[in-house]
Amino acid sequence: MERRILAGLAILLAAVATARQTAKPAAVSNKQVADEVIALTRAHWAAEMKKDAAAWGKNVADDYTVFEGAYPTRIDGKATMQHVVDGNFSSSDTLITAEMANEKVQVYGDVAILSYNYIASIRGKDGKVSPAMAKSTRVYVKQGGQWMLVHANFAPVTAPN
Fold first, then answer.
1. How far is 32 from 39, CA to CA, in rounded Å?
2. For site-directed labelling of 11, which of 27, 44, 113, 147 has its Cα 20 to 30 A away?
3. Domains and CATH numbers, the chain
4. How many Å apart are CA 133 and CA 119, to the nearest integer?
């Protein structure tokens, strides 16, 4: 009787272990994560080009923080940054191109760090097109199955003369 109980318990434990292994999601490659966070960044830029604040905030976490070259301090919170974005979108300056160079994505579980050189063109209200460049870092965290932007640092650089 005791042997049957032990054998049954062993079978039950083996079934639980097998179920746990098969219930795990398939491993996601670092390349797939890199492609996803780069696509989110490009979607951010597309929203800026359309001056679409709702699309801009889609994958931004509520506790988002950012160091932005135009401001002397860190901006805390999606809601605060959304006001800044709304103000920027009401200006007559328009982002017309945005690209990244030297992009690198480092993945640590549910954290992905994207660093790159930002290269863009902005059309001013006078119609003049000016370059915009920055050394950029974006930190994404997987929350509820989605990559969310939790922090960014945009350090402006000037064009060489």
1. 11
2. 27
3. 28-157 (3.10.450.50)
4. 5
In the sheet with 75-76, reading across from the earlier edge strand, the strands are 75-76, 60-68, 146-157, 129-143, 111-123, 94-108
Query: Nearest 5°: CA angle at 18, between 15 and 21?
Result: 150
C-alpha Rg value of the chain to the nearest Å: 23
Please tell me the distance from the alpha carbon of residue 136 to that of residue 80, in angstroms, as a whole number: 20
pTM: 0.77
